[in-house]
Design a protein that fits this description.
mainly beta; seven-stranded mixed β-sheet; six-stranded antiparallel β-sheet; 2 helices; 27 strands; 2% helix; elongated
Length: 404
Amino acid sequence: FFFFFQAEDGIRDFCLSRGLGDVYKRQVLTSSALPFTDQEAAGNAVNKIKWNDMFSLYYQIQVESTVEYIHFWIVTKYAGWSGIGLGSAMAGSDMIIVNTDKTEYDYFNPVGGAPGLDTAQTEAGVSDVILVKEDKVSSPKVFHLKRKTNTGDSKDKVITVGQNQDFIFASHNTSTTLSQHNSAKAILAQPISKTQICDSSCSKCSGPEPDHCTACSGEALLIGTSCQTLTKHALNTFTLDKIKLSYQIVGDDRILLHFEYNYPGWAGIGFGKGMSGGVDMLRVYMDGTTPKVEDLWSTATSRPALDTAVSGKDDWTVQSGSRSSNLTKISILRKLNTEDAKDFLITLTNLDVVFSGNTDSDAFNKHNFGGKTQINFTKENLNPPADEKSALITNICYALPIIY
């Protein structure tokens, strides 16, 4: 029984959950990755270390009656056994192995061959890993286990909060006995933390599902649930009365809109000459300190409906947003062609655009300014002079929604 694995200095494809303590208080942790209700998972952040799409490890530090524990959730799609080792090599590794023909989970690998139970070693250790709950029926299977961070057992690794820990992942596709494995890999220098940890491109992660970024750092953009860096073409800016609207074509198939306005209310635009006949609209606003976007559809001069309420999809995603005093800045992203019947196909040409806003309130009430214009959507730098930008604004209050 020999392990051959590829060492990797850290991993780059994981993003970890936000802390549950202040946000979720004593609520139950539920997640698509953790399919059962788990009463013990409250307190500090739940962080994730991902090996591949088949096998991930979640962990959380908890204190129980002044004793510090680490909780592990081994989430695996492998039909056979799955295990993690605390260490950079198999020899001398403290291991936790699940879905075997044993009812104990605490293993030690003294020489790099087949690991054995701590209690079966020449200098016997203690079975310190406690099964909290398991789901061996669902896919993925989930094993929730816990142990003290310092068990005082010579066969157990001391886990220190605030320091990096090397991990080894190993598994077998079909066998539940430890006679062999299919694959193994070392994932090195993973921080053990009570708080949220994200990779370098994710500035804020959503909980409790650790794979979801909600904001990206630097030049990265939020694409789906992950942060990606795509080519940004020229930034073109137009003044729409009280709204400064800028756009960038991103990559070959997306558009990034930047709204900037100096009042404590909302701003919106629509693609079309008027409100009748079906107009794809959107509005941005601040919900307290959180930037928001609503994907809207209007067929009349009354208040537009959310796309999701008229058999459409919510295709805009917020990239960033802030409000300082009344200066509001919000950036949003969507595909040029969303393949949604309630979204306008944005082509790189001159397009009719209507705009409106309310300078007094973020609530979706009646607008108090608006108009229509044409905007040339292109990857190139238009950079029109200021007077030309102003001249684009015509027919103020033409065919605007009457919003109550």
